Fold ABC transporter ATP-binding protein.
Amino acid sequence: MSHGNNTVSTRLENVSKEFSEKTIFDTLNFTWQGFGIYSLIGENGAGKSTLLGMIAGLLDCDLGKIFINQQQCLLNNQEYKKLVTYVPDHSPIYDFMRGQEFLDLICSIRKLNPDCYQIYIEKFKLDNFLNTTFAEMSFGTAKKFLLVSALMTEAPILLLDEPNNGLDQATLQAFQQILIQQSKTKLILMSCHDQHFRDSVNAKSIRLDALKTG
Ligand SMILES: Nc1ncnc2c1ncn2[C@@H]1O[C@H](COP(=O)(O)OP(=O)(O)OP(=O)(O)O)[C@@H](O)[C@H]1O
């Protein structure tokens, strides 16, 4: 991998977050070290998506710090952004954008050769949707493009929010194989309510309430 490390870590240091005076996290401390797949487990509203969004750098911590390797999650830290890629549970893509345009845009931002996504287009059977706008795509098809945009990068941290939601059986099988393969060289953190899917990719469970109480 081009990140050049034979290991990778994500570290939460005294991370606190509240929404409208409701505490979601209070001085959370945890480190994920090394490659593999981890799934955050917790009831609806426990804060799984919030934590993934914070590690992705899209939501601020109220207090505390988040690091990937030695890089701190800060608005202008481009080195941090290179280390992480994130798939939210719903598509945030402009309606007018077409599938291929979106992937080419991500390639251009991440300085990747556009050839890098072809293999995933085949595995996810997206050939016929490259020219389709996100407005016209089904939920599952849009989700597949988002997954491709993350899987094609070399970022060693992959954050996936409910990644299996909306995928058909054939795609799920292809996706499971890709995740297992990528988990040899990436640290994959996901939120996933589906135990069958978690087991199928050998995800290690991390209970959010256990994290909160240290
Ligand atoms: N932008 C926001 N403004 C106010 N409250 C928010 C906001 N985003 C999330 N919350 C609240 O923060 C809490 C954690 O939400 P989050 O979506 O992270 O939970 P989750 O564990 O991912 O839930 P689910 O399993 O339902 O996906 C919830 O109480 C939610 O209502």
